[in-house]
């Protein structure tokens, strides 16, 4: 959440971003006062449960919010330019060329009636001046780069002739076709089985080195964060509750929600009784009281006075940020006891 806009190492600087959705003529805040930045060449994880605001936050960077969604406040600065003032035409140019996105389900982005070659060549020629022949050569190279063997043959196939993991590789090939500065990957491996998941994550990590890009990786899985990210923002109910380097967050997690998330990662195959401490779900947007600590209702072992009023994200040690001082009163053991007492 460092906010130094003249720092050349910062690619995207998001400041005090709030996003709302109009539902039945009421504006509901889904993301509140979120600040973070994406540094050049880093893999930033955005982690949190379903409904915590991960996708809404990153789709606002791309200016791809649904029609009832609106940026209510804040700024998104990409390479020194304010994105929220950009026209749709300017954004379209940025999206294909400099910022790419990879989604959870490649089938929603691939067209089933065209071959992989058709789609890759079209994507390449949309942004780069090339003959068809050159674009086909580039497409084959890209497929090889993302680990598709026999690419010259495979490129002639249709999406349904590829496995889920292979389709995701094709999407990654498309995403890197223009050598983007930033790749936003929204749960890119959730639909895949564990072994393929790992391969795709390894591929993303390798690509970061090869093409020198920044990656934002959205996931609900802290284990994924641990394996691939440099830094992580933990989101809850539309707010960032903690941000730190990955090594630091696993060594010294502070916020109760982060501790509970880490604690709910299965250690090995056996359930050691530490699982499922984290009960309940993220509250619905219309039920969130933002003047309070958003996690208060989810935690049994803390008293009301343990939480701050109107808590803000604060730097508590270099590059380690946490929201609400309730973390000072929280421990997993106490929470487990409180749970068992019920
Ligand atoms: N078009 C919409 N209209 C109204 N509310 C919306 C809309 N899109 C998202 N929201 C709300 O915004 C909040 C954040 O949603 P978001 O999709 O960012 O969550 P997420 O963290 O990406 O969850 P998941 O892990 O399930 O993808 C949710 O409470 C959701 O209900
Ligand atoms: Mg999402």
Can you give a write-up of this model?
There is one protein chain. The chain has an eight-stranded mixed sheet with strand order 6-7-8-3-9-10-12-11, sandwiched between helices. Helices cover 33% and strands 24% of the residues. With 342 residues, the chain is of the alpha/beta class. The relative contact order is 0.14. It folds into two domains: 10-98 and 178-340, Rossmann fold; 109-177, no CATH class. Strand 4 and strand 5 form a beta hairpin. Helix 4 (116-127) crosses helix 5 (132-145). It has helices at residues 54-61, 88-97, 106-109, 116-127, 132-145, 151-154, 164-176, 194-211, 222-228, 246-251, 256-263, 332-340, and strands spanning 10-23, 26-39, 43-47, 69-78, 81-82, 99-102, 182-186, 214-219, 231-236, 239-245, 313-317, 320-323. It starts with 9 loop residues before the first strand and ends with a helix. It is globular. The chain has twelve helices and twelve strands. The structure holds adenosine-5'-triphosphate and magnesium ion (MG).
Labels describing this entry:
single chain; 342 residues; alpha/beta; Rossmann fold; 8-stranded mixed sheet; 12 strands; globular; disordered N terminus; binds adenosine-5'-triphosphate; binds magnesium ion
Radius of gyration: 21 Å
C-alpha end-to-end distance: 38 Å
- The CATH class of the largest domain: Alpha Beta
Number of helices, where a helix is a run of at least 4 consecutive DSSP H or I residues: 12
CATH architecture of the largest domain: 3-Layer(aba) Sandwich
Strand % is 15-25%
Assign a percent range to the helix content: 25-40%
Structural class of the secondary elements? Answer: alpha/beta
How many domains is the backbone divided into?
2
Q: Summarize the helix and strand pattern as letters.
A: EEEHEEHEHHHHHEHEHEEHHEEH
List the ligand species. Answer: adenosine-5'-triphosphate, magnesium ion
Biggest sheet, spatial arrangement of strands: 6-7-8-3-9-10-12-11
Major sheet: 8 strands, mixed
CATH homologous superfamily placement of the largest domain: P-loop containing nucleotide triphosphate hydrolases
Extended strand count: 12
Let me know the average pLDDT.
90
What fold name stands as the CATH topology of the largest domain?
Answer: Rossmann fold
- Shape designation: globular
Low-confidence stretches: 1-5, 269-275
């Amino acid at each position: 959440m460092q906010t130094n806009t003249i720092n050349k190492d910062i690619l995207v600087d998001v400041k005090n971003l709030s996003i709302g959705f109009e539902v039945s003529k009421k504006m509901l805040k889904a993301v509140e006062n979120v600040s973070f930045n994406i540094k050049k060449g880093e893999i930033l994880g955005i982690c949190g449960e379903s409904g915590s605001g991960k996708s809404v936050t990153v789709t606002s960077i791309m200016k791809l919010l649904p029609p009832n969604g609106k940026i209510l406040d804040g700024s998104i600065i990409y390479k020194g330019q304010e994105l929220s003032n950009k026209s749709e035409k300017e954004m379209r140019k940025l999206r294909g060329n400099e910022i790419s996105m990879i989604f959870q389900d490649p089938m929603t982005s691939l067209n089933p009636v065209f071959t992989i070659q058709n789609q890759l060549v079209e994507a390449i020629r949309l942004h780069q001046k090339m003959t068809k022949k050159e674009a086909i050569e580039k497409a084959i190279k890209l497929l090889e780069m993302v680990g598709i063997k026999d690419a010259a043959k495979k490129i002639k196939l249709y999406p349904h002739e590829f496995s889920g993991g292979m389709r995701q590789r094709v999407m990654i090939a498309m995403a890197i076709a223009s050598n983007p500065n930033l790749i936003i990957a929204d749960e890119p491996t959730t639909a895949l089985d564990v072994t393929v998941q790992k391969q795709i994550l390894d591929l993303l990590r390798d690509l970061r080195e090869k093409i020198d890009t920044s990656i934002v990786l959205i996931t609900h899985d802290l284990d994924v964060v641990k394996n691939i990210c440099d830094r992580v923002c933990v989101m809850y109910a539309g707010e960032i509750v903690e941000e730190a380097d990955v090594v630091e967050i696993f060594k010294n997690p502070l916020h109760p929600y982060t501790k509970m998330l880490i604690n709910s990662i299965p250690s090995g195959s056996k359930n050691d009784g530490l699982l499922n401490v984290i009960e309940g779900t993220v509250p619905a947007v219309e039920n969130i009281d933002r003047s309070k600590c958003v996690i208060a209702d989810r935690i049994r072992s803390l008293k009301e006075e343990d939480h701050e009023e109107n808590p803000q994200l604060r730097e508590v040690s270099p590059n380690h940020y946490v929201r609400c001082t309730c973390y000072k009163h929280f421990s997993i053991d106490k929470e487990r006891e409180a749970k068992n007492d019920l």
